[in-house]
């Protein structure tokens, strides 16, 4: 898998409000997956969770995550990002979840009384795939 | 997470050609995710890979997988399935990949000269989620 930074076309893809699934590690090492909102910013990914979500415990214990981002309208295009949660902080004023909610739905987050947490994931490796071949296409040498 | 079997409404959801992301474990324990076709059958999941795919090696080494299935038209509805690959066999006559391709695209698989492998995952646990709450809704007690 190539190391980051990602090519511009991949960065542009990642800025859209795409469906995504994040994998974390349970204490027994079993992978755990869940759909998630994310925001891509300067080679990092912001995710945000209710305080009761299992993946919050998982990332506190073992920061390694993998995120597969699907295209909004053609899910055979996918970009997978692998890296580590480098910051896990309370989202006390709901600033981050509002940012994510506005990105995906155009509206601030509806749950104003939840305890939310934000994690920033530093992305170290990535790959892209589109209907049976690497994406973006590798340049001929 | 509840143990299988899944409720009928979840089973019905899983029979559709939904987008899905599968997590496997790298030899170093890092989670690895990728979009995948799947077919749900009697509490098991069929997936199929080109012989060169990393997740094939991963499942041979450690059978634990997690699969998050998104709704085709509303990806906030999700079902996650956790279990173990109990069978990994060559798909010599492309029967399985044709089954998957037909399920998703209505056509047999286009790559007639690939070496493909099938894995059946026995699903042990599951959870469903829809826009901020468990799905299907838990019955009041």
Structure characterization notes:
Two copies of one chain form a homodimer. Chain A has 141 residues and is α+β, with helices and mostly antiparallel strands. Chain A has a single domain, classed as Pnp Oxidase, Chain A, CATH 2.30.110.10. In chain A, 18% of the residues lie in helices and 42% in strands. Chain A is built from three helices and eight strands; from the N terminus they run H-E-E-E-E-H-E-E-H-E-E. In chain A, strands 1, 2, 3, 4, 5, 6, 7 and 8 form an eight-stranded antiparallel sheet that branches. The radius of gyration of chain A is 15 Å and the shape is globular. At the A-B interface, strand 1, strand 2, strand 5 and strand 6 of A face strand 1, strand 2, strand 5 and strand 6 of B.
